[in-house]
Specification:
This protein is α/β, with parallel strands linked by helices. It folds into 2 domains: about 240 residues, Rossmann fold; about 120 residues, no CATH class. About 40% of the residues lie in helices and about 20% in strands. It contains 14 helices and 13 strands. The protein has a 9-stranded mixed sheet, sandwiched between helices. A hairpin with a 4-residue loop joins strand 6 and strand 7. Helix 2 runs parallel beside helix 6. The longest helix has 18 residues.
Length: about 400
């Protein structure tokens, strides 16, 4: 009998706990200690229309302040939701329910003074989620205000996960550090504006496989989580299927239902270093020819920009050099960059609507005027590792 028991214990110990993990844990971190406080409550209620099941864990951390209705001089504001009074940060395992007005999922952790703009808070949430809800695969969704690479802190007051109480935010470098210290994620989704930039993506090498984000400012309500979670729950655990389900949910909510112009794309971060090498090669070739240096000032009005007027579509920038440069080496570098973007780096692009023409999936900083150049850009890892900052300075100052 002792031998049988011993054998069984050894047999059980040979199995990794991964055998008992769910397929997927979706971790949603929402920084709403700002003017998104009401919308964030609605997000959690949307999540509860789906809820966790035997295959998928949906967990969220919501940090908020009391929300206020937007002033409307033409009518009475809608009543505030019943749970608007609570503040601080709550960590929640999302359970399914049909009450669309009140969050009923159990609060598993609460902190009145959590700083949602501190990268260590994000790191701790990811660690907490993995420890308590282990899975074979992890998706991290970060919601709040965002502004792409401009989160570099030398010194800057922009980034992602703004917290109006602490006056803090998470910079690109800090975001990558939070992921690295917590073991990373398979797919990172930004429910925030202007995040699909080369500069921010470059920081995420080695800590994520794929990133889903928008080149443009996003609609205020962001993802409709009732749609997004439903599509995730019905998807296979294959990366491409999960990515497709998330992007389809965004397109359905904002373009198909509301006819809004949107951009949303998925990129393969595992190729980010190869992409930066091709961008660097183009920058070096442009710097080698005075005619190429002056080309941007001649053609900048033909290039589309986003709400950040200094964010340019990378594919379109390369196309400009390919079509207009008289230098064969520049044209080859530009073509190689376009092909790599289209065939390797951008795996799914859904630019929809008349305002989204020429949005090919990834943006890069290229100031519209020389007065727009900001030396904080030079503190970014991407700028330090490439000649892109030298090239854009030479270009925009060429006809000062």
């Amino acid at each position: 009998m002792k031998l049988i028991v011993s054998f069984l214990l050894c047999f059980i110990s040979e199995f990794s706990f991964a055998e008992f993990k769910k397929d997927l844990t979706v971790m949603v971190y929402i920084s709403a200690r700002n003017n998104l406080a009401l919308e964030a409550l609605n997000d959690i209620n949307e999540m509860e229309t789906v809820g966790s099941d035997d295959r998928v864990n949906f967990v969220a951390e919501l940090g908020r302040i009391k929300g206020e209705n937007v002033f409307n001089p033409f009518g009475n504001p809608p009543p505030l939701p019943p749970q608007n009074d609570w503040t601080g940060s709550r960590r929640i395992l999302i359970k399914k329910d049909s009450d669309k007005e009140k969050v009923n999922s159990e609060v598993l952790s609460y902190d009145e003074n959590a700083d949602m703009g501190n990268w260590t808070r994000l790191m701790d949430f990811i660690k907490w989620s993995k420890k308590n809800f282990p899975a074979k695969k992890y998706i991290l969704i970060v919601g709040g205000h965002g502004s792409g690479w401009r989160g570099v802190k030398e010194p800057s007051n922009k980034g992602i996960a703004y917290d109006d109480l602490s006056k803090n935010h998470i910079s690109p470098e800090e975001f990558a550090k939070a992921l690295k210290e917590s073991g990373g994620a398979d797919i990172v989704v930004f429910d925030a504006c202007l995040m699909q930039t080369v500069e921010f993506l470059y920081e995420l090498k080695g800590v994520a496989k794929y990133v889903i984000a928008s080149q443009e400012s996003t609609p205020g309500e962001g993802y409709d989580y009732s749609v997004t979670f439903s599509k995730i729950a019905s998807s296979s655990n294959n990366d491409n299927d999960l990515i497709s389900s998330i992007i389809k949910s965004y397109v359905y909510t904002h373009f198909e239902q509301k006819q809004r112009s949107i951009t949303v794309s998925a990129v393969n971060i595992q190729f980010i270093e190869e992409l930066s090498d091709k961008i660097n090669r183009l920058a070096i070739e442009v710097l080698g020819k005075d005619s190429d240096i002056k080309l941007y000032n001649d053609k900048r009005f033909s290039l589309r920009s986003f709400e950040d007027e200094d964010a340019r579509d990378l594919y379109q920038v390369a196309l400009m050099y390919y079509e207009n440069s008289k230098n064969d080496k520049t044209r080859v570098a530009a073509k190689n960059l376009m092909v790599f973007l289209a065939e390797k780096f951008v795996i799914l692009n859904a630019a929809k609507g008349y305002k989204s023409k020429d949005a090919y999936g990834v943006s890069i900083h290229f100031p519209f005027y020389y007065l727009n150049y900001n030396k904080k850009y030079e503190f970014l890892s991407f700028a330090k590792d490439t000649y892109w900052d030298e090239m854009i300075k030479a270009s925009i100052f060429s006809n000062k």
